[in-house]
Amino acid sequence: MGLLSSSVSITQYKVEGQLPAPVNEAVLEGLQKNSIVDIDNESEDLVSGWAAFENPYKPEFELAGVSIDTQFVFSLRIDKKSIPTKVLKKHYFLEMARRLTETGREYLSKNEKSEIREHVKTTLSLRIPATPNIYDIIWNYEAGQLWFFSNLKSANEELETLFSKTFKLTLIRVFPYTRANLLADLAEPEKDRLAKLAPTAFMG
Amino acid sequence: MLDVSVSYNRYKFIGHEFLTWLWFTIENEPEKLQAVAKELDSLTLGNRMVIENRRNDEVLEAITIKGDDAGLEEGLLALKKGAVVTEMNLVQTIGDNIWSYTLKGESFNISSLKTPVVGQVESGDDIEGAIIEKIYLYDQVIQLIHTLFKVFIKKRVSDSWPETVNHIKKWIRS
Questions:
Q1: Do B108 and A202 touch (CB under 8 A)?
Q2: Planar angle of CA B21, B79, B19, nearest 5 degrees
Q3: Can you name the residues that pair with A145 across neighbouring β-strands?
Q4: Model-level pTM?
Q5: Is residue B22 domain-resident?
Q6: Number of domains comprising chain B
Q7: Contact criterion met (CB < 8 Å) for B149 and A180
Q8: What is the DSSP letter of A129?
Q9: Is residue B170 part of a domain?
Q10: For B84, nearest residue in chain A (alpha carbons)
Q11: Which residues of A touch B153 (CB under 8 A)?
């Protein structure tokens, strides 16, 4: 969901750690090194990488497009090939039938079946284009704050993995406990009480 | 600090209690919201709320109240039985500007966030301005949640929490 959409979802993160100076160049270099790679003519069925906000289908980054005001703006792109189950089933059975005819046997072993399934999947993957999913990111480096424009669990997990691999920085998801512990300016005795909290019973 | 996934699960209830406290405050002490968020003109309940009764992390009963004019009696009844608010749609106004969004208690995920309308992006040159404007508008929501949560959590770890709980209980019973 794009950050300029009329309705958005946001997952908040705190970013811990520092990039080597100059930061702008470190960010740009990280994005370029881990930008999305096209898999349309490859056998892989899933790939993720960074993409430019303004043109997410062209894996090129320019500082002017990434650094806006005091923020870095870019996108996470996850390309996935989804082979319809019925298509997979059809080609699997056709391939099994071919193998049985060729060998003159009545049955195939479990291993052979699984090998055929993998072979069919790889062959079909080469013929099916990947569907791109784009999730925008706003990173306020100075404030150590990052907004990810999706609440999807799988997309958030992909972001956490790729971000850490790219920038060697820690992304901490901001949920009630982390917000209380890291961002609410609690004093040490208050943090101790926080750690010992138990649910309140509001009824009765 | 505790491992992130352990703390997420162990302290989910903090987010649920925050939303329950927020509902109570919106209904009974709205002036307190403006006292801590100076620019805020109003914060009201929107058109959706999810209330769950949990035991040992298992959901025993879940009620979803939807609709612009939905009555909240069912929700209060559920609170009486020990439920807490797990998701809440809110409407925030500052001057003539209106934001609406849904806040999930356990994750603080924001969804269906609609900001005041911004200028149309007609050319590439407009994009940067539109992004800056949108960032400002999203920040208004994030800052408000942050400010209110700070008030809540300070209270929650203080000795005055039982007194607040008594007020909430009175409201639930009323």
A1: no
A2: 25
A3: A14, A140
A4: 0.90
A5: yes
A6: 1
A7: yes
A8: P
A9: no
A10: A202
A11: 179-180, 184, 186, 194
- Mark yes or no for CB contact B110/A203 under 8 Å: no
Contacts of B154 in chain A (CB under 8 A): 184, 186, 190
- CA–CA separation, A61 vs A65, rounded Å? 7
Burial class (CB in 10 A: 0-12, 13-18, 19+), B129: middle
What is the residue-level pLDDT of chain B in tens, covering all 174 positions? 678 888 998 999 999 999 999 999 999 999 999 899 988 999 999 999 999 987 766 777 888 998 877 778 888 888 998 899 999 999 999 999 999 999 999 999 999 999 998 877 777 778 888 999 999 999 999 999 999 999 999 999 999 999 999 999 999 988
Handedness of CA A185, A189, A192, A197 (dihedral sign): negative
Please report the ipTM that was assigned to this predicted complex: 0.93
Pairwise CB contact (< 8 Å): A4 & B134: yes
Does the beta carbon of B75 lie under 8 angstroms from any beta carbon of chain A? no
B170 touches chain A (CB under 8 A): no
CA distance A146 to A73: 10
Structure tokens at B146: 């942050």
Question: Considering the domain boundaries, does residue B172 fall inside one?
Answer: no
Q: Residue B105 belongs to what domain range? A: 4-164
Residue B67 lies in a domain: yes
Tell me which chain A residues have a C-beta less than 8 angstroms from the C-beta of B161.
Answer: 200
- H or E segment and range at residue A141: none
Which candidate, B119, B120, B102, places its Cα nearest to that of B111? B102
User: Where exactly are the structural domains of chain A?
Assistant: 11-81+131-195, 85-127
